[in-house]
Amino acid sequence: MNGANTQRYRPIEVHEDFRPRPVLVLDVCGVLLAEPMAPLFRAVSQEAGTSSDRVEAIFRHYFRDALWSGLLDESAFWPAFAAACGLGQPSPAWRSVLRSTMMPLPAVSRLRNWSRGAQIWLLSNHRHEWLVPALQTAGLHRQTHRIFISSQTGAVKPNPSAYVQVLEQASPGDNLLYVDDKEVNVEAFRSLGVDGVQADTTGSWTAVVDGWLAASTRRTW
Fold first, then answer.
1. 151-176 pLDDT, tens digit each
2. What is the percent of the chain with per-residue pLDDT over 90, rounded to a whole number?
3. How far apart (Å, rounded) are the C-alpha atoms in residues 104 and 33?
C-alpha cells in the first residue's frame, strides 16, 4: 500500500527497575480506556449509508494488520479507508471521534495503588499517534513502566511475537499477570505460560488483580 512504513521502534521506556517484582501487563482500550473503534465504525457507516458491521469487516479485511503493525502509515490509512467504504474522502470528524471516545474507565482509579506494588506494563494493538495522547491526557504514562504499542513494535496480538517481546523484557523471577478484554488475546499469552484474566464490563476483574498483587507481594518481598 502507498505510505508503507517498515521502520520499527523500541518500546517506550518510562521507568526502569530491574529488581524481580510482580509485573501487571494491561491491554489499554477496553481495560483502561474506552474502546474507540466501534464508535468510529458507526460514524463512518452513517456517512457511507451502510452498516457498522460492514465497515468493521472492511477494516478487518483490508486494514487491521497493516495499520496496527505500522506497515501502513496512519496518514495514508484515512483516505484508503474512506475509499474502501465508498466515500470520496475521509471526514475530519473521524479523528475527533477517536479522541472523544478514548476516555478513562473505572480501573484507572486503581492504577496508582497497583503501581505501588507492581510494575505496570501496557501492551496494545493501536496507533501510537492515537494512543499516546490519550494516555498522556489521562495521566497514565506517569504510572507505567513500559509501553508496547503495536504500530511501534510491529507485533500485533494475538501473534505470539507480541507476547514474546514482553517476556524478553521481563527479569528472572518476575511474576506476570496479563489483562485483556479479548479472550483470544488472554489465551494466547496463557499458551506461553503467563497467567491471564479477561476484563469484563462489570469491572470484577479488578478484584482478581488485587488478590494476585497481594499474593505476589508476599512472595516477592
1. 999 999 999 999 999 999 998 889 99
2. 83
3. 4
pLDDT digits (tens, 9 = 90+) for 42-75: 999 999 999 999 999 999 999 999 999 999 999 9
Q: How many CA atoms lie within 13 A of 108 on its CB side?
A: 20
- What 3-state class would DSSP assign to 87? coil
How far is residue 218's CA from residue 221's CA, in Å, rounded to a whole number? Answer: 6
> Got the DSSP string for 3-23?
TB-----PPEE-----S--EE
Compute, in degrees rounded to 10, the torsion defined by CA atoms 86, 89, 90, 91: -110
Which cell goes with 205? 476483574
Name the helix (H) or strand (E) containing 177. Answer: strand 175-180
Cα–Cα distance measured from residue 170 to residue 175, given in angstroms and rounded to the nearest whole number: 9
